From TrEMBL, chain A:
Residues 825-944 form the Response regulatory domain. It holds the Pfam family PAS_9. This is histidine kinase. It comes from Salinimonas profundi. The keyword Transcription regulation does not apply. CDD domains: HATPase_EvgS-ArcB-TorS-like (cd16922), HisKA (cd00082), PAS (cd00130), REC_hyHK_CKI1_RcsC-like (cd17546). Keywords: Membrane, Phosphoprotein, Transmembrane, Transmembrane helix, Two-component regulatory system. The keyword Transmembrane helix applies.
From TrEMBL, chain B:
The keyword Protein biosynthesis does not apply. CDD domains: PBP1_ABC_ligand_binding-like (cd19979). Pfam families: Peripla_BP_6. Keywords: Signal. This is ABC transporter substrate-binding protein. Belongs to the leucine-binding protein family. It comes from Salinimonas profundi. Residues 34-362 form the Leucine-binding protein domain. PANTHER family: LEUCINE-SPECIFIC-BINDING PROTEIN, PERIPLASMIC BINDING PROTEIN OF ABC TRANSPORTER FOR NATURAL AMINO ACIDS. Residues 1-24 form the signal peptide. InterPro entries: BCAA_transport, Leu-bd, Peripla_BP_I.
Amino acid sequence: MSHPVSLAGKLQRVLFPRLLAALFVVSILICGAVLYFAQEQVADRQMHHAKILQDDIQISLQDALRLLQSVADNDIIVNSFIDYEQRDTYLPLFFRTLRLTRSDAFRLALYDFAAQPIITKNWNSALPDDFVQQWQSRTLEAGSKTVEVTADGVMLAVPVRLGDSVEGALVLYVDRIEDLIYPRENTAVQIITDNDNVVLYSSDDTVVARGQSFSDSQFANWISQTLHWNTLNVHSLAPLSTVYQSLFWLLSLLLCCIIATVLISVYAVRRSASLAGETLSSLHNSIAESMYNQTPSRSVAPPDEAAELALIRDAFDELKDNLLSISLSNRQFANVIDSLEELLVVLDNNDNVLMANRPYSDSAHTLGFDHRMLSSLKNEVSESSSTIDKSYVNKYHQEVTIKWELLPFSDQNKNIIGSILIGNNVTERRKLESMNRLMSHAMQSATVAIGIAEFTESRLSIIYVNEYFTRLTGYALDDVKGKPLVTLTGQQTELQKIEIINTQIQSGESVDETIVLHKQNGSVFHTRLILTPVRYNKTVTHYVAFCQDITEQEQTRRYLIDAKAKAEESARLKSSFLASMSHEVRTPLHGVSGTLQLIDNTPLDERQQYYLSLARQSLQNLQHIVDDILDFSKIEAGQLNIERINFNLPLLIKTITAQYEPECEKKSVTLHTTTAFNDATMVCGDPVRLRQILGNLLSNAVKFTESGHIKLQFLLDKNQHQLTLTGRVTDSGIGIDKDKCESIFEVFTQEDSTTTRRFGGTGLGLAITRQLCQLLGGDIEVDSQKGTGSTFQFTIHLLPANELPAAEAIDSAAAPIDSVPQSLRILLVEDNKINQIIAKENLKNHKLMMAETGEAALAALRHVKTPFDLVLMDCQMPVMDGYEATRRIRAGEAGQTHQTVPVIALTANAMKGDKEACFEAGMTDYISKPFTAEDLARVLGRISA
Amino acid sequence: MAVRNYLFLICLLLSFYVVGSVQSATPSNAPLVIAVDADFSTVAAEGGEAIYRGARLAVENINEQGGLLGHPLKLVRSDHRGNPGRGIANINQLAETENLLAVIGGVHTPVAMAQLDAIHKHNLLYLGAWAAGTPVVDNGYAPNNVFRVSIRDSEAASVLLQHAKSRGLHRVALVLERTGWGRSNHDSLHEAAAKLDIDIVKVTWINWQQSTFAQDAGAIADTNAQAIILVANAPESAVVARAVKKQFPGPMPIIAHWGLAGGDFVSMLSLPVLATMDISVIQTFSFLHQSNPEAQSLFTQYKNRYDNAISPESVPAVVGLAHAYDLVHLLATAVKSAECKNTDVVRDALENLPAIQGAVKRYSPAFSSTRHDALWSDDYFMSRFDNMGNLIPYTR
């Protein structure tokens, strides 16, 4: 066996003979082609030369013609036609400077319209006749340019124009073409002949001279090209020998190429053989390694590997790897089956186990499955034609439920070759299902409407409602499933609440809201809606809604609110009625009181005096009753104003007790006062109300005590910032029954009806007293025994006196009237005639003027000559009331002099806010009606002071 | 007195001769010919046409009144195209014409100057309707066959410069065409300037058909010239005007000889450009200026014959029209008084015309033996262009 030849050697042996043969043929072809193309090229070159010569002549002629025309158009030339006298001074100079061709050997002449020369240059002899004929007919008459090239030479003529008419001609003549063109720059022989083949131009006079006759036969061994242009023939000639010269350089070049080709081929063969060899040996190594290690391995890429070889190597590696990985996937498949949760067992048609996964093997072990059991199970499942549940007890005595399923086992040809049993452990699921059923039942049978809504895309859609919900709203599950919660809302639903609920839902909060909803039949119901979010992973996924029908509760609540409002309204009406009644009563009372005062001022006998005192007594009682009613109604209406001013507490008690001393003396009842004030005199509180409380208690004590004593005890306690005044009024009067002790503080009650008859009174006094005590922060209580007397004990809160000086109002009634004002001019504004009369009498010392309305008052103020010192203004009048009139006075409507006049309000209203209203309107002071002469005098004193 | 008698005798003798020759050579009613040799095609075609029209209207008048010496008048025309050479050839050719009374020549002094030799060689009467060169009339020939109703450069110069002076312009630049006409004005303008105390600060020349004048305009701008005196035909005047417009920021006054009125200067320059320029032109006639009955009659005839809608100021090259019209009438009067068509007799009659009312003026008389120019500086006036490009006389 001979040694195998290498890849390179083999390739070389095959390649070389063929390569050399091919090179020989190609060389022959190239030589032939070169000869052919060289001849072509020389011919082309001659054509090119001829063309260049033609172009050269053409361009020269055109240039000369253009130059000639520009001279003809020159205004010097034109002007010379006109400037007959002096043209000879500048025209020759102009002509001398002209150079129109490449050589100076040109002749030039300017002719006039009649073909008479005006000026010439180098014009030695006459032109050939046919030239003259040419330019005169074509240029001077027809006005076009003339170009003539003949054996006689070259002639160019252009017209000279004056405006649009041809008025002369400029003629250029050159007798040889050479004078127009430059010498040829190539080696070829170029000849121009005319139609008679007479040579007009020759680039080489040694070959053929100008004027000779030219024939093609002379130049048989020449390569010749001819162009025809106008009446001329342009020839270019080159000897044939020039063609062969071009072959010499080619032969040496060819030889070099052949040697180079052979060398390159050898190298290329060796190189490609080595490239392929490297790749193949790398593949061989890699296969050997994979076989040995049983793992995929990649072959090593040799350096400078060709792309095709790399592709083959990669494909081979791939194939090798695939083979290795098939065995791997078989193992993985087994692992997958074992990793399944389901029990899987494959049986053949004889119920023999072909394959079983690990869960099956484990269960078979713990639950004791065997061939018999599998066989019967298979039959059972195939009979039921669906899945079946089977329960087993494991070794821990726990019940295990397995759901079995049967699948046919087929081969590639879809022939059934056995069966597959799949078992699912559903123990947990069955438990959950049972629990779920229970929950559902509980929900369905609940007596509260329950709904569940799914939270998707930030809105709630109902997915479940229970039976009670249907009973409550009329909507069945199918009606509302997938719909939003707002389905139940309607016209009467408060939009605001829906907004609130929506906001809460959007932020995932619970909702507890009472809201009006609509049933399916349109009727409304009040419900307490509780929405509870259900979260999964901190995200709200559902809302559970509970709807409680509270329509009845709501109706009840409304009824109660209405009832309360009505009750309050009725109480308000009552107080208002009382207030207006007392006011209405006061006005006539004032009249009576005033009239009695007036009578008192008249001379009376004793009997009359006595009657008058009776009348005054009655009047005082009446006034007292009215005051009580007024106070009470103020309290009821919440209009009683509690003041805080400084006052002298011991002095106040002294003045009150002093009022009752005369009466006590009359009844022989001792009045005894003890105080424990710890040196405190000035306190801060409401002296008027305190006086009222004390007055009420004292007057009762005096009223109900016929003999014995009345004791007053006062105690001032100080704790922190507050003072507590405890007062006790003890009498030895008729006393009160124990069981009546509480009711005497109620409105319109006295101890019994007989009391009323015996002692009079409205029955409001104690009720007012208690209310006052309570308003002043304390209370009142009574301790009494029928027949032995009573003890009333009250407490009120006071404050220590602050820095402010004691108000004058503490005891204005007792303040002495120092100065009686002198005669003043007073305007009384009052609509009530009786009041007018009383006032008039009381103000006898003053000059008084009357006005019945606000408007009349303004008019009087405006028109009076001497200004008023004072205006007494009734508050309530027809047309324009006192407030309005005062405002207008202050606004200057009654004149500037009266803008600051003191205005004293006369008011029958003693209700809260009246005083403020007076001051607000700009009044200076006020007197409450009914007023006495002293009241008036006091206010007048204050004003005039 | 002796001269008159002598002339009369010659006329008598010659008339016998002429009548005899006419009788033998031509039929008795053969028309007498007046030729108009003018530029009908190049730079002053409008002028040529206006001359022809004026002559034609006059000829028609005369023919309506029975013609001259019992012959109708016939008008022929030849076109010298502004080319003096052609002008000479035309005269030589016209000399062959039977019964030629006179040649009315027009537009271009150079042509007229060149024709002088031939005119006198053939003893033709040359009536100049539009050629201002002084030497056209003062030509040195005796007897002088040239009679002219036209501007005379030596007189025009003083009018042009007087106009400048009256406008307070004391330094002028001359722009002259490089021909006999330009040179005629060169001399007369210098003479007049010396008399009027005006400085000629620059003289520039322009060739016929010169296409640019920028360089010369620049040279004028380099002087302190206040105005330009322009002596050129329409095409060159337009070139000059454009260059001046481009060179000078404000309107530089151009005081022009009448050459620019002989061609279509206005459309060459364009109305908008013209409106921005200050150009005055010397004229002898305008239907707005002359209001004598002859002028009015001429206008009526012109309208009836050529353009019914034309306005007095827009008759093109109107001076040529009026001059030719008057020349024909003057010639006719002379021929009538000569009672023959003999050149020498008619020349004599022209020199001894009575006073005649013409369209241009009342000639009293038109010519004398020493003066062959009918118009003098008093008969010239300056005019300017209106918005439509028509020449309007300056009001005096």
